[in-house]
Amino acid sequence: PATLDDIPAFLTNIRRGRPTPEAVVRAVRSRYEAIGGTSPLLATTRAQAALIGQKTGLPCLVATRMWQPTFEQVLREVAEAGTPRDLIVVSAAPHSAHVYFAALQHAASGPASQGLRPPVLHETPCWGDHPSYVQGWADATARTLDQLGVRKSARAVLVPTAHSLPMRTIHAGDPYARLVAETAEALVQRLGRDALPSMLSFQSQGMSEEPWLGPDLPTVFDRAKTTGAEGVVVVPVGFPAEHVETLYDLDIEAKQIAEERGLWLARVPCLDTDDKLIDAMGAVAEEVRRRLA
Asked: Is the pTM of this model over 0.85?
């Protein structure tokens, strides 16, 4: 959401039209207020798109699943313009490309139902294990460890983290948990001798009562404490760009959870428009373009 006033409509989109309890609206609003009243995510995504366009020489459009510009809006505009005929879909979520591609396919039925010819969509694979993406996180992690200093970082546990999902999604066969674990393992391997003991976590569990993918951050912090660690270095490998789930869930909420356990918390910044991230996203687009040539 661009403003605090947009939050109710944003939550309605997330809940697929179901009314949002006022208590939930207030809770979400307080989170956005704590990070300045808005999320930088859309602006960062647009900046990423511009850089990917420069790298690949392709026009690059931005569409969002839960806010504006929506998938439906962008696909309708492309269909009305009649060009381009082919769209290469690069998900900004590195471990969920298949989910966003399916949502775009569904959205493409809108222009078709209006007599417009929707563009042909071409899927790119999940790219969380792309060498450039992993290297970007390794470089960012190394910078954070350097800032901490050898003595302090030597007494810490590395915590790669990504967004949790309902366990019913995992049980249905979604490879998300495995893909995130592969990214975390690749990061540790890339760090080499500088790697700390590592514990993977899944954060930002939803408000529903159903089981969610874990271990969550409090559980991992408890485990880190039992090893004798004095702090945790959180690496949000599931989040290429800063948004409320890094700026609030990690920098405010998780920091408090860590401090309650006698741990300090350092957080590796998201890659945002880092060259390595742009290289990875551009590379998966180029791979599809070569197949279409």
From this structure: yes
